Description:
Mean pLDDT is about 90; it is low at about 1-20 and about 535-545. Among the domains are: about 15-135, Alpha Horseshoe (Serine Threonine Protein Phosphatase 5, Tetratricopeptide repeat), CATH 1.25.40; about 365-545, Hypothetical protein af1432. The protein contains 27 helices and no strands. Helix 15 runs antiparallel to helix 16 and helix 20 (about 375-385) packs antiparallel against helix 21. The chain is mainly α and about 550 residues long. Bound molecules: fe (ii) ion (2 copies). One fe (ii) ion binds near residues 373, 405, 406 and 487.
Amino acid sequence: xxxxxxxxxxxTRRHAPVRSAADLLREARARERAASIxxxxxxxxxxxxxxxxxxxxAVLAEALRxxxxxxxxxxxxxDARALCRRSxxxxxxxxxxxxxxxxxxxxxxxxxxxxxxxxxxxxxLRALALAGQSRELRARVEQNLGIVANIQGDFDExxxxxxxSLEAYRASNDEHGCAIAYHNLxxxxxxxxQFDEAERYFQQSYEIAKHASDAYLQGLCLVNHAKVHxxxxxxxxxxxxxxxxxxxxxxxxxxxAKADAYRVLGMVYRETGRPALAxxxxxxxxxxxxxxxxxxxxxEASRELAILYQGMGRNQEALTLLNAAHARFGRLDARVELVxxxxxxxxxxxxxxxxxxxxxxxxxxxxxxxxxxxERVAGGSVxxxxxxxxxxxxxxxxxxxxxxHDLGKVRLPHGILGxxxxxxxxxxxxxxxxxxxxxxxxxxxxxxxxxxxxxxxHHERYDGTGYPDRLRADEIPLSAQIVGIADVYDALTxxxxxxxxxxxxxxxxxxxxxxxxxxxxxYGAFCASVAQPGAAGAVVNLQQHA
Length: 546
Ligand SMILES: [Fe+2]
Ligand SMILES: [Fe+2]
């Protein structure tokens, strides 16, 4: 009994400073909520000093962590990280795992917003290991791990993490937390193309958000559900949802979210054959995204407008928009927009290829004999580029250039293309203009890939006998030589109005006769590429021709 009384006076002596540290912490939080940041920082620092003096480890850990958040928001992230680490060390020493986990969760959040996503993941995983008995912390950490997985493009893991987060929010009766988890589950499920689940999640999130009067979350659920309706071809539902979302966002006043809703409306009008309305909605989406500074929404809306223009035959405008979107996606900050940037860029490049391929095919239709020419030249050119060991970027350049290499032929007078007989000298002079016209048609269109040299110089020859500029040897860019040889091979192996198609062997023999037209490297890579099984049809015995 006596022994038990011994520490009492000491406790009493420490009681006042402990309370004052806790009071200071409460005051700091109140000032932070009132946006009095310098005062909040002073209070947090006083709370830290008082807690140190009193040996109040839990208050100390909490004050250090909250001060870290404020410092981070002021852009002092190095200080913020140091504070988190100290908070973690203090909490561990005091044996309060949950507070240690909170410190790591905050540290991960700072990593996510400033530096490496991989570091964030590590810290969140460490936080999760410490969160054991705290459902609240586990719910938030799993949510953060879901966001990291989403940014890294691992949508299955994102779904699994969000589900665990949802369970933890449910167990701690946090309805609003559940609503956010449902919404994120909807997004990740849609990314995984699990549309039934996505719709269910958006609906559940919407119900809770409505009940909790969270207008912004209601709007997000409506617009993201609308995107699923568009994918599933339910345009009427999509339009209703997007319009309802727009009404909500008008009230809340979030420009980037409004841009998203306008984009969905534009897509609906485009897909239901109302191009003028589609154009107006998509233009509005771009303007709103620009003024809200939302790079992601601007890039996405530009891509959708490009698809509309392509459908209307406005190909130059489509390409200009796709180029703009490509540049925007290149500047996207995954941490800010919470998106998998590589996946978005790959998606855009697929759209780009589709637009360019269709444009290439549209001018093939002028001359039935060249049907499929662009596609075959593109395939052949990429195979040669691969044989030369060129990287993905260079292969894409060659592919896009090949689709558009004969673009200038749209200006050829009727009757020259597909003429049933060899061309006269005058006619051939006109034909020789097509590389120049092709580049002219793309004037003002800036591409992410350097394709204009391919269009202008695909008829140049290594020995200086080509056109239009009679370039020689390595004055001719490699990409133009590649498309040039693939072009000749396809022309030889295709029937013309005045001659049948050459057999593969005969075409290769003809190319061998003209091998001075290309550098040794390009000729060699061409031979290697056509020798690949399936590259351009049957396997060729090169021994006979090389
Ligand atoms: Fe050509
Ligand atoms: Fe061609």
